[in-house]
C-alpha cells in the first residue's frame, strides 16, 4: 500500500515523474496530483484514470507514504518538513535540503546505503552533479580522484517548462527577425551561450558551480577532492553536456577508463573516433543512460594520471526525475 503525492506535477520534472512511474510500473496504490492554485481544478489522465489537480497545502500529505517534490526551493523549504511530520517520506528535487547534515543526498548508483539514514526527507542532487559524477564513481573507487576540472553545457530544461517554451518561442522570433521575448532568463538563449543564470558569489563562482563542488564531496564522502567548475547555458532543450578533466592518484590509461565506465550502471560509452561520433544532447534526450565519450589521456598531467572525457545526460531524467524515482523504488524495497 504505497500512496504517492507529486508536488509540482504540472512542471517539466513533474511530468517526467509521471512518465517514469508509468514506464517503470511503480507499485503505487494511489496518486495525488499537486500544483499551485493556478492549476487546481484542472483535470488530467494518468494510467487510464482521471485526476483533478489539487492545490498544494499543509493538509496535502495526510495519509501519503511518499511525496515526490519538484515545485521549487521555497515550496520544498516550507512544505517538505510538513509532509515529513505527517509521516511521509519526501524525495526532494530542490536544493533546499541537499547540504543539510540530517538529510541524505543520494545517487542510487553511488551511495544508496545513505537512504536508510533519512529523517523524513531525502535530497536529490543537482542535475549537473548527478550527470557528472555517476560515471566517475567506479573510477574513484579503484583510483582515487585528486582533482576535477568541470565545464558544463547546460540545457534550458533546468530552469523549468517555461524556459523550454521560451527557447522555442525565441528561436521562431529570431528567425522571423522579431525582437525576442525574455522571461525565464535575462539573456537571449536562442542562438546564444551565457554563464549560468544562478547568482554569483563573492568568490566569482556562481551558485550552480559551487553546488557541484559541495554536493560531489557529500555524495562521494570525500572532501579531499579538489574541484573547480564553470557552468554555462546553451540553447539545448533538455540534455546537459560536461567536459571533465580528471587527475587521478595513480596512472590510468584511456582503455582502462573505458573498460570501467562501460560496466558502470546507468552509463553508456559512446566513443567512436573513426566516425567522430560522441555524446550529444539529441541522443541523450529521453534516455536513462548517461553517454560518455572522448575518453583520452591528458598529457599535461605527469605520470599518465590525467584523463579527459565528455558526457551528455538527460537533465530531466537522470538529472532529476529518474534519480528521484530510483530513490523512491529503493525506499519501497
Ligand atoms: P503550476 O503549473 O500550477 O504553476 P517548472 O519547474 O517546470 O517551472 O514547474 C514548477 C512546478 O511547481 C509546477 O508544477 C508549478 O505548478 C509548481 N508550483 C509553482 N509554484 C507553486 C506553488 N506556490 N504551490 C504549489 N506548486 C507550485
How would you portray this structure in words?
- This protein is α/β, with parallel strands linked by helices and 333 residues long.
- The chain has 2 domains: 3-124 and 320-332, NAD(P)-binding Rossmann-like Domain (Rossmann fold), CATH 3.40.50.720; 130-315, Dihydrodipicolinate Reductase, domain 2 (2-Layer Sandwich).
- It has 9 helices and 15 strands.
- It has helices at residues 12-23, 73-85, 127-133, 137-142, 161-175, 207-220, 254-262, 281-284, 317-332, and strands at residues 3-7, 30-35, 43-46, 49-52, 54-55, 66-69, 89-92, 121-123, 145-154, 194-195, 226-233, 239-248, 267-269, 290-297, 306-314.
- The strands form 3 sheets. The protein has a 7-stranded mixed beta sheet. The protein has a 6-stranded parallel beta sheet with strand order 5-2-1-6-7-8, sandwiched between helices. Strands 3-4 form a two-stranded antiparallel sheet.
Annotated CATH architecture of the largest domain: 2-Layer Sandwich
CATH homologous superfamily identity of the largest domain: Dihydrodipicolinate Reductase, domain 2
Q: What is Rg?
A: 20 Å
Q: In the residues, how many domains can be counted?
A: 2
